[in-house]
Design goal:
Length: about 120
């Protein structure tokens, strides 16, 4: 069992925990959506791909993003997963990322899918 991300309290008033498969998915999510420089004492952690929500994405950007994500996951999670494929797309103010990987400890192949949308702006009268 591992501490859940984001940190939360369970129904019994204790630290929420997750199984290993969900923990790996949560670690991938942290690497993907943390911007470099965001974490104290780990300035190289993350990818900063959240900025792609604002960009129009062409084939070159997708290829560069896949390379960047592959490198970040290898750098920070190479002892946990072996990345097999990455799919990135952005449309309608949403960023979707799929990471196909093998969990090294169990040998299980998995696909983790993530989506981030622009926050909706509420109108103030």
């Amino acid at each position: 069992m591992h501490i859940a991300f984001p940190f939360k309290i369970n129904g019994r008033g204790r630290t929420a925990k997750v199984e290993t498969d969900e923990h790996i998915r949560q670690m991938i999510e942290q690497v993907l959506f943390t911007s470099p420089g965001e974490r104290v004492n780990r300035p190289d952690f993350g990818t900063g791909i959240s900025n792609l929500i604002f960009a129009s994405i062409g084939d070159e950007i997708i290829a560069a993003t896949k390379f960047m994500v592959q490198g970040a996951l290898q750098q920070h999670l190479s002892d946990v997963i072996l990345v097999q494929d990455i799919h990135v797309e952005s449309e309608d103010a949403a960023l979707r990322v799929a990471v196909q990987y093998v969990a090294i400890k169990s040998g299980q192949q998995r696909v983790a899918m993530f989506e981030r949308k622009l926050p909706e702006v509420s109108e103030v009268s």
